[in-house]
Design goal:
This protein is α/β, with parallel strands linked by helices. The protein has a single domain, classed as Rossmann fold, CATH 3.40.50. It is 48% helix and 14% strand. Strand 1, helix 1 and strand 2 form a beta-alpha-beta unit. Helix 4 runs parallel beside helix 5. The longest helix is centred in the middle third of the chain and has 29 residues. The protein binds NADP nicotinamide-adenine-dinucleotide phosphate.
């Protein structure tokens, strides 16, 4: 039995990077996993195949009306109506939704002087409004179930700020305030809400950067290395599982001590 056996999960933005690692870890721990993507169709298809192989229906879901244990759905996280349709679809297919991970996110970095209104709005809508969209849509289902774990992926940048990322920092700081408020509002319904704040995590995004720059970042971290997506995923497994049954309204930093 895995830590998430018998649970259903939805992870937004899982076609690559941290989201993909979360989806795979969740399946390895026995969860049935739905995930979203927007533009990476091939990557999403390959992830769906990989997740289907875990066959978690047989392991923990004998009662499932629809014998499906993985599902990739194209859905724009920034769009309110799409989020509602997404949650309805997952609940319809899986019969429940126990864990929601709001992971979809983008950067549009620039100094404030040069930042366009479009860059501001895009980052706020995809990173922050997306959390409102899905949490609002999932609340009724989780209230009916009298249980649920919501995990919002913020960032070290949301806690300390970063020059050239005022839009991103504002979106990620907003996620922290949102997370704490949801935890306070829904705690009495046994719905937990926490945030995970990764530091510098080495994904495909960082692979394309100049090695010297990346090494400079690594050297500045007390643990002298970047994190792996799987290390963020482990924190999400913990917060999604009963191992964290009395933890809510918290920010779990996963950053090699780069910010304490
Ligand atoms: P990534 O590799 O760029 O992956 C981003 C994912 O989000 C992709 O699957 C992408 O899907 C999806 N996405 C983007 N816009 C979307 C939209 N409008 N609707 C639905 N999905 C959308 O990024 P990552 O590094 O794994 O980051 C994942 C999360 O961790 C983000 O919230 C990020 O802010 C946070 N984070 C990352 C780091 C880091 O060092 N990497 C540090 C702190 C926090 P498509 O490709 O299909 O469009």
């Amino acid at each position: 039995m895995g830590l998430l056996s018998g649970k259903t999960a939805l992870i937004t933005g899982a076609s690559k990077g941290i989201g993909r690692a979360i989806a795979i870890k969740f399946a390895q721990e026995g969860a049935r996993v739905a995930f979203t993507y927007l533009s990476s169709v091939e990557k999403a298809d390959s992830l769906e195949h990989e997740l289907l192989a875990y066959n978690n229906v047989e392991k923990g879901f004998g009662h499932a009306t629809v014998p499906k244990n993985a599902m990739g759905i194209k859905s724009d996280a920034a769009d309110f109506k799409s989020a509602e349709e997404l949650i309805n679809k997952v609940v319809e297919e899986f019969g429940s939704l126990d864990i929601l991970v709001n992971n979809a996110g983008i950067t549009r970095d620039n100094l404030l002087m040069r930042m366009s209104e479009e860059n501001w709005d895009e980052v706020i809508n995809i990173n922050l409004k997306s959390c409102f969209n899905t949490v609002k849509a999932v609340t009724r289902t989780m209230m009916k179930q009298k249980s649920g774990s919501i995990i919002n992926i913020t960032s070290v940048v949301g806690a300390k700020g970063n020059a050239g990322q005022s839009n991103y920092a504002a979106s990620k700081a907003g996620i922290i305030g949102f997370t704490k408020s949801v935890a306070l509002e829904l705690g009495s319904r046994n719905i937990r809400c926490n945030a995970v704040a990764p530091g510098f995590i080495e994904t495909e995004m960082t692979e394309v950067l100049d090695e010297k720059t990346v090494q400079g970042w690594r050297d500045g971290i007390p643990m002298k290395r970047g994190g792996q997506p799987e290390e963020v995923a482990d924190a999400c497994v913990f917060l999604g599982s009963e191992m964290s049954s009395y933890i809510s309204g918290q920010v779990l930093h996963v950053n090699g001590a780069m910010y304490t």
